[in-house]
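Task card 7
Instruction: Convert sequence to structure tokens.
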Amino acid sequence: MDQELRTILIDLSRELLRRLERRPPPNLSPSQRAIVEAITDDPQASRTLARVAGRRFNSSFMEQLRGLVAQGLIRKTARGYSRP
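Output:
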């Protein structure tokens, strides 16, 4: 196999793995799924995340965020919530 083809295959494999890692687990509620899909690599404030996810910002939303952090699906930092 020539070097160029090998490099392309490695790049494609990495991209596939990256996309699979970002997929939410199948056992999430629709609301939790929306939150996980709205998460980015850059931290977002909880209010911003609620808006992007199409959810109301309230105590229920914050409880779901805490649960997703506890499951390791998202990360909480001083600047907001992001991908782990």
